[in-house]
Design brief:
The complex is a heterodimer of chains A (107) and B (249). Chain A contains 4 helices and 1 strand, in the order E-H-H-H-H. Chain A is mainly α and 107 residues long. Chain A folds into 2 domains: 35 residues; 70 residues, no CATH class. In chain A, helix 3 runs antiparallel to helix 4. Chain A is flat. Chain B is mainly alpha-helical. Chain B has one domain. Helix content of chain B is 70%, strand content 1%. In chain B, helix 4 packs antiparallel against helix 11 and helix 13 packs antiparallel against helix 14. The radius of gyration of chain B is 20 Å and the shape is globular. Classes of the chains: A mainly alpha (107), B mainly alpha (249). Strand 1 of chain A pairs antiparallel with strand 1 of chain B.
């Protein structure tokens, strides 16, 4: 099933994307309203929450170029050393730019 | 009656503080938005259509993926599948906020979730782990991120040439570095470290062998399973169930 990208078609596609995204935004909280929150569920939720971050970042580090890997490593080191997010993030971004400027492409 | 059913009170002052707290990261979101606006117009979307998409969908990675599938025709089912898969992490993010969200009336609860995105969720989830309840960042932070995403898209569709290569400035790594800093700022108990290892290994395995865009959900659920089976006794966190808000009303 295809939709032609006429003006009406594009508006329909945007509406579909909005709806699908809305389902994902509302769905988690909606489903949880049927679950009794006991210590075990609470523990699941908390571990799952920080695992979301790891599950986003680790494949990003492995699939990216040397610049993205360097950015994540530098952010991690500075964050662990200083506990200050903004300097850690800024240094990470700067290192990604520098590594790419220096032309390091492979790992 | 209502006050005791829904004890969480959103504080307008704190919403404002969180708006300005996420302003720096939002400036980088403007750059991403510009990259999206440029990509969208190159794929044949009208400027207003690209801006409309950013305003209503407000989920960058899935928007990039969608315009990648653009042509004279777009297949509907693959589009829905890709958008759902990339955004399915919202399901877990929303679920993780539920212990706080259930203390809001349903209208406000789902109103807040309209603005749920990676950065404001990461702040809220991390503070919740340290015993602080912060839904204001979802609203205030979400608002500034949403505005930045729209302004960025607008800049990209009209002045796309200004930012030809955001990667060369490292701008593609802003969100990754931000999320990593949030993760490392949280508690690092042995249980968390085991969960992270499991999450890392399973997300990599899913990324390699499972259908595209499933790795976040797979990794997060695998990490969550550790928490489900390994309960940790934390005497200092037992009083974080929101009792104080009830008492103050």
């Amino acid at each position: 099933m295809t939709v032609e990208t006429t003006t009406a078609g594009i508006l329909a596609l945007i509406a579909v994307m909005t709806l699908v995204t809305l389902v994902t935004r509302f769905g988690g909280a909606f489903l949880m309203s049927f679950v009794t929150i006991n210590p075990r569920i609470e523990s699941f939720i908390n571990t799952m929450a920080s695992s979301v971050l790891i599950a986003i970042i680790v494949p990003m580090a492995f699939s990216g170029d040397a610049g993205s890997l360097a950015a994540l490593v530098v952010t991690a080191v500075i964050m662990l050393a200083t506990k200050k997010p903004l300097p850690a993030i800024a240094a990470g971004i700067a290192v990604a730019g520098l590594v790419r400027y220096a032309g390091v492409t492979g790992l | 009656m209502n006050a005791s059913t829904y004890p969480y009170r959103l504080q307008p002052d704190k919403v404002r503080v969180e708006f300005f707290r996420l302003l720096p990261i939002s400036l980088f979101v403007v750059a991403f938005g510009a990259a999206f606006g440029l990509a969208a117009t190159q794929k044949g979307l009208e400027p207003l259509q690209a801006i409309l998409m950013s305003a209503t969908v407000f989920a960058g990675a899935s928007q990039f993926a969608a315009v990648d599938m653009w042509g004279s025709e777009v297949s509907l089912i693959p589009l829905i599948a890709v958008v759902f898969a990339i955004n399915s992490r919202h399901l877990l993010m929303g679920a993780s906020l539920y212990p706080m969200l259930r203390d809001l009336p349903p209208g406000r609860r789902y109103g807040l979730l309209l603005l749920l995105t990676d950065a404001n969720w990461a702040v809220s989830a991390q503070e919740y782990q340290s015993g602080r309840r912060n839904l204001e960042v979802i609203l205030g932070g979400g608002l500034v991120l949403w505005l930045a995403w729209i302004v960025g898209t607008w800049l990209g569709v009209y002045f796309g040439g200004l930012l030809q290569d955001p990667k060369s400035l490292g701008l593609d790594m802003v969100l990754g570095c931000f999320l990593l800093a949030m993760a490392l700022g949280g508690s690092k108990s042995p249980r968390t470290l085991v969960a992270w290892t499991v999450a890392a290994v399973s997300s990599l395995a899913a990324w390699k062998w499972l259908p595209p865009n499933t790795h976040v959900v797979v990794g997060a659920l695998a990490g969550g399973a550790i928490g489900f089976f390994w309960l940790e006794k934390k005497p200092d966190s037992e009083n974080e169930d929101g009792g104080e808000e009830v008492g103050s009303t």
